[in-house]
Design goal:
Shape: globular
Largest sheet: 4 strands, mixed
Order of helices and strands: HEEEHEHHEE
Number of helices: 4
Structural class: alpha+beta
Helix content: 25-40%
């Protein structure tokens, strides 16, 4: 789980790189979803070098939690994702999917207004396809959120 200890970089370097490609920011969702998604995309079409980040949580580089506050853990988790992306030569706008695992759906929904600025501070105004899943617990007892990320870097 440590930002520096992830094996993502070794795995990414072993992936066969596809030919030069582009990243399409348009929605890839069907007509089933007529309304524009707010805060996420229904779908993203992309091609290029793929990066797969394992579940990131809200602890620091020493694998220590600095807070038990949900919003602060989300902020740290998103900053951890940005740091891992940078190590692999990617940026937040290369994210195509985020899967959020939270231990308390009601806290997530109840604190959305606080969450928005924290999200934008880390990832800007880029909103990839997202899913949110409530879980009974996460492996690290103090963790309130875990986020998996997929990014595609145009070549």
């Amino acid at each position: 789980y440590g930002v520096r200890s992830l094996c993502v970089f070794f795995f990414v370097s072993m992936i066969r790189r596809p030919p030069r490609s582009t990243l399409d920011r348009s929605s890839a969702a069907s007509d089933v979803y007529k309304r524009q998604a707010r805060g996420y995309a229904n779908g993203v079409a992309a091609s290029g070098r793929m990066l797969f980040l394992g579940g990131m949580i809200g602890w620091n580089g020493q694998q220590e939690f600095e807070t038990d506050d949900f919003i602060e853990q989300v902020g740290q988790t998103l900053r951890n994702i940005v740091e891992v992306l940078a190590e692999a030569g990617a940026r937040p706008e290369h994210l195509v999917r985020l899967t959020w695992y939270v231990t308390d759906r009601d806290e997530y929904v109840g604190r959305l207004k606080e969450l928005g600025p924290v999200y934008r501070a880390a990832l800007g105004s880029h909103f990839p396809a997202m899913a949110l899943v409530q879980v009974v617990a996460l492996v690290e007892r103090r963790a309130k959120v875990e986020i998996e990320a997929t990014a595609v870097v145009p070549e």
